[in-house]
C-alpha cells in the first residue's frame, strides 16, 4: 500500500460520519412507532411488522449481499448499497399507505450492508499501527448514529411530526451517497476465486463445522430481540395513558444507552482477563436482574431509568464476548463466521420487533416485562451452558 492511498484524518472522520448515517436509518422508528401506528390507523401488533420485516430483510441482505465483498470492490458495493438505502428511505418518506411504508422499510433493511463494508474498506487503507484507532472510530460512529437517531427522532416527531424525521433521514442519506465516491478512493480491483454461490453456501458448511458460533449467535439473537422488544414496547407504554409522555421523552431515555460507550471497552478488557464465556455469563446474570426490575419499577419514569441503566451497561458486553468466542479462529474464516452470527442476531431482532409490540398489544406492559424476564432467564442458561462447554 502506498502512502498516497492511505486515508487522511478528514476521510477517517467522514467515513465515521457515513457509518453513523447509514446505521441510524433502522432506529428512527423506535421512539416514534406509536405516532406512525396512529397515522396509518394500525394496531400495536401490526405496526411491529415495520421493524420486524426491516430486521429480517437485513439478515437476508447480509447473507446474500455481504459475501460479494469477498469478490468485488468494497467502494463500488458501498456506493451501490447506500444508493439503495436512499431510494428506500424516499419510499418511506412519501408513502401514503401502511403497505407502502412497510415495503420501503423492508427494502431499507435489505440494503443496509454499508456498515459492514466500511470497516473492511478502511482496514486496507490505514497503517497497521492505526488499524485499532480507525476501527474504533467507525464503531463509535455506528453507536452515535443509533443514539442520535433515537433521541433526534423523538424530539423532531414531538415538535414537527414524524414525517419530518424521514425527510431529514432521506436528505442525510442523499448527501452521504453523493459524497462517498469522493471520500472512498478508487483503484480496488474485483477479485476472482470462489463463485458467488460457493461463497454463500460455504457459510452454512462453516457453521456446521464450528457449532459454537451457532450457540453464540443464538445467545445474541435473544439479547438483540430483548433490546428491540424493550424499546418498541417502552415507546408504546410511555406515550399511552396513564403515563402519556411525548415521543421526545422516549428519545431522551434512549440517550441512556450512551453509558455503553464508556462501559463496553472496560467490560471487553475484563473479558480478556477472565475469558469471554465466563464474562458473558456474568453479564447475562446482571442483565437478568435489570430486566426483572422493569415490572416493580415500571410505574414511573424515574423508576424505569434504574433497570435501563443496568441493561445498557452490560447488554453490549454480551455481544462483544459472543464475538470473541469465534474471532480468535483462523483469519480467513472470521468474515463468514461473523456473517452467521449477524444473520442470527437480526433474525432475533425481527422476532423481538413483532413479539414486543404484539405482547404489549395483548397483555400490556406487565406482559412485556414477564416475557422479557423469561427470555433473559433462557439467555442466562445458554450462557451458563456455553461457559461449561468452554472449559
Automatic annotation (TrEMBL):
InterPro entries: MFS, MFS_dom, MFS_trans_sf. Pfam families: MFS_1 (PF07690). Residues 11-391 form the Major facilitator superfamily (MFS) profile domain. Keywords: Membrane, Transmembrane, Transmembrane helix. The chain crosses the membrane at residues 12-33, 45-65, 77-95, 101-122, 134-152, 164-181, 213-237, 249-267, 279-295, 301-318, 339-359, 365-387. This is MFS transporter. PANTHER family: MAJOR FACILITATOR SUPERFAMILY (MFS) PROFILE DOMAIN-CONTAINING PROTEIN (PTHR42910:SF1), TRANSPORTER SCO4007-RELATED (PTHR42910). PROSITE patterns: MFS. CDD domains: MFS_NepI_like.
